[in-house]
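We were asked to recover a plausible sequence for a given structure. The inputs and outputs are reproduced exactly as logged, with field labels preserved.

PROBLEM: sequence recovery
POSITIONS: 697
GIVEN STRUCTURE:
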């Protein structure tokens, strides 16, 4: 399996700038790139990456997306006088040309292609390209919004053409709408008769049945500052109801932000409740990120409030798709402090370092919920994971755009005095704390006859007299069983090592997973304020475990025991238990992730109940996603006889990406209903579970 992270950068791309006065363009400066790269060097991240040289994209590659006339016109810009350049620039919106920009634009697109090559040829697992000019606004025959060639769109076409990649997911977390990418792929289902054709021969009827799997090959997701069409580029088609055209319907996903000031929880909520369910259902072979950081706090364009460490999480949440094949290409980002911080968070996550803890997440704001609700109902007919969600009326929200456009109503936020002031105020935030790697990434507690996986350190059983005497008090029956006692004692000391960050994650084979879990939970140090216990499979968890809120239990099973739900004891009951992949993922993405983020545990204990029925790939996805919490400190408890799970579990804890799930079927109606019911019941306690604005004041 490929590993390593590519970094693509060349100083040449700092060598063009705005040569005249234009307030709209003055923020797009060469320093954007140099400060980002210098921060990577200063933090020792550049050195840990595989440095890949840039190259120019060829004409043929640029023509994958752009017209011949446009390319020929741009080709002339290096020879133009200042007056000619100004004149040429005038036909486009919010962009400038310079004698060296054509060269840089070829390098920027070429960098994205080098990155795709490195990932697809398995020289590296993932990577980031730091480029200028950005790309996502440029269209077939037009420059726009500082963009000349559409780097990511070209890369997507290139990946399909050169490597036969069937499904490409483009995630555009830049704060502007990448309308260029949308136009490029919105009616995309090209090559219907090309790949993906399966022919069944039916002997009985003596006929051949051709089944054509018609998949749109590129799924584009973008969130963007919109303000009911008041914000640049002020397009009607940036709204949530642009879902793609004809066969491309459902493959264009726009989440408009109708207010500024969106925070980490707003971003996470959109990932949990729209992007991730759809992305897992789509099952991409490659993920491309339009990685703009003008969506971070302090940015003069975005005016949002999400902190740089959110990008560690956004990146991580995408890293278990497509077998980890992720290429991030820089787009916007104009605050020279938050931009390099955000770039570092992204690259450090690609390198596999522990995730930062996100503290004090609130619920999404009302405006974010309105957008989320509208988007989910606009997309529900295309995606099984959204299919059965309640369909509220979106009318009052969409008509607001028209009424504002016609000057009938004022935007509500403008009527509040002092709001304007708040925006112009300098934003302050802390530099994200360091993310130190523990000396031991994963440790195991295993019976002597079970081999310890490579890269994982076996902890030899050690009996702490103090721990043992406390254990004896609690687990009287086991007091006789010296072996179980030794195992429990070792588990407690393993957790202590995790707490000191000497060890990242742990896995253990134990005689009784529930007893082991109880033992860990009752004996962790009082400094571990919150422990998230995730139980997979049937089995009774003593309900007193969670009484003081220091423990949150979330169980996924096929046992109908919904009565005893409480804020800290959540039981998800699925028809086929953990065997049904789509139902299970629905619960993981729509329930477990939001609750986990809001709870913000210091330790995660993942319990695999005996005979849970969970398949390998799903188990790996779950284990990988749980690394989002507690700075990656997860303890996995498994039943002694399930020693075939040790290897797969260890590989994920050591940082391997989970293999992709097959394209998911729509989950069973009963399962969706069960998850929805639970979500509604719990959203008063866990605000990140909200998907509609009905419940907020
Ligand atoms: C790539 C990017 C922004 C253009 C803003 C024009 N472009 N007002 O962030
Ligand atoms: Zn932008």
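RECOVERED SEQUENCE:
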């Amino acid at each position: 399996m490929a590993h390593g992270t590519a970094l693509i950068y060349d100083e040449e791309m700092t060598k063009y700038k705005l040569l005249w006065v234009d307030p709209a363009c003055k923020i797009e400066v060469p320093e954007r790139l140099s400060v980002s790269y210098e921060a990577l060097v200063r933090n020792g991240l550049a050195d840990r990456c595989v440095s890949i040289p840039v190259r120019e994209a060829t004409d043929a590659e640029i023509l994958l997306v752009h017209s011949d006339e446009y390319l020929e016109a741009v080709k002339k810009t290096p020879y133009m006088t200042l007056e000619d350049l100004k004149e040429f620039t005038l036909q486009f919106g919010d962009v400038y040309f310079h004698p060296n920009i054509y060269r840089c634009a070829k390098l920027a697109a070429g960098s994205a292609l080098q990155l795709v090559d490195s990932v697809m040829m398995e020289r590296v697992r993932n990577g980031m390209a730091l480029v200028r000019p950005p790309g996502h606004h440029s269209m077939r025959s037009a420059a726009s919004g500082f963009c000349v060639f559409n780097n990511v769109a070209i890369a997507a076409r290139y990946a399909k053409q050169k490597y036969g990649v069937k499904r490409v997911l483009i995630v555009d977390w830049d704060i502007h709408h990448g309308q260029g990418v949308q136009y490029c792929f919105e009616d995309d289902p090209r090559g219907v008769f090309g790949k993906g054709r399966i022919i069944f021969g039916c002997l009985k009827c003596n006929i051949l049945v051709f089944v054509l799997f018609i998949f749109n090959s590129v799924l584009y997701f973008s969130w963007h500052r919109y303000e009911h069409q008041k914000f640049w580029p002020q397009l009607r088609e940036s709204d949530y109801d642009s879902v793609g055209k004809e066969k491309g319907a459902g493959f264009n996903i726009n989440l408009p932000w109708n207010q500024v000031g969106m925070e980490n929880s707003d971003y996470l909520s959109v990932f949990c409740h729209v992007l991730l369910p759809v992305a897992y259902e789509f099952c991409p072979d490659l993920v491309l990120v339009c990685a703009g950081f003008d969506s971070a706090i302090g940015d003069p364009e975005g005016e949002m409030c999400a902190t740089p460490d959110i990008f560690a999480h956004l990146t991580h949440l995408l890293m278990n798709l497509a077998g980890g094949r992720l290429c991030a290409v820089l787009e916007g980002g104009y605050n020279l402090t938050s931009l390099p911080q955000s770039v570092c968070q992204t690259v450090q996550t690609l390198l596999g370092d522990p995730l930062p803890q996100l503290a004090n997440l609130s619920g999404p704001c009302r405006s974010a919920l309105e957008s989320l609700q509208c988007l989910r109902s606009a997309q529900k007919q295309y995606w099984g994971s959204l299919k059965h969600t309640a369909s509220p009326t979106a009318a009052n929200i969409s008509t607001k755009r028209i009424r504002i456009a016609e000057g009938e109503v004022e935007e509500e936020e403008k009527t509040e005095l002092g709001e304007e002031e708040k925006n112009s105020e300098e934003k302050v935030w802390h530099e994200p704390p360091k993310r130190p790697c523990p000396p031991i990434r994963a440790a195991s507690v295993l019976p002597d006859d079970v081999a310890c996986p490579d890269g994982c350190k076996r902890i030899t059983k050690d009996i702490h007299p103090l721990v043992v005497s406390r254990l004896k008090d609690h687990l009287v029956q086991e007091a006789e069983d010296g072996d179980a006692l030794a195992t429990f004692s070792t588990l407690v000391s393993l957790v202590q090592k995790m707490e000191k960050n000497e060890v990242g994650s742990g896995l253990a084979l134990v005689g009784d997973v529930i007893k082991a879990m109880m033992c860990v939970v009752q004996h962790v140090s009082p400094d571990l304020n919150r422990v998230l216990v995730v139980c997979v499979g049937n089995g009774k968890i003593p309900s007193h475990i969670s009484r003081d809120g220091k423990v949150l239990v979330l169980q996924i099973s096929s046992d109908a025991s919904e009565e005893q739900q409480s804020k800290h004891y959540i039981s998800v009951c699925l028809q086929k238990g953990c065997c049904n992949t789509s139902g299970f993922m629905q619960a993981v993405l729509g329930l477990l992730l939001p609750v986990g983020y809001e709870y913000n545990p210091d330790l995660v204990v993942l319990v695999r109940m005996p005979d849970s029925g969970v398949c390998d790939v799903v188990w790996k996805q779950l284990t990988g996603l749980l690394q989002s919490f507690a700075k990656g400190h997860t303890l996995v408890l498994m039943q002694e006889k399930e020693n075939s799970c040790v290897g797969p579990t260890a590989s994920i804890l050591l940082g391997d990406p989970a293999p992709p799930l097959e394209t998911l079927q729509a989950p069973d109606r009963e399962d969706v209903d069960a998850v929805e019911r639970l979500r509604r019941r719990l959203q008063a306690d866990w605000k990140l579970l909200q998907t509609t604005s009905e419940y907020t004041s």
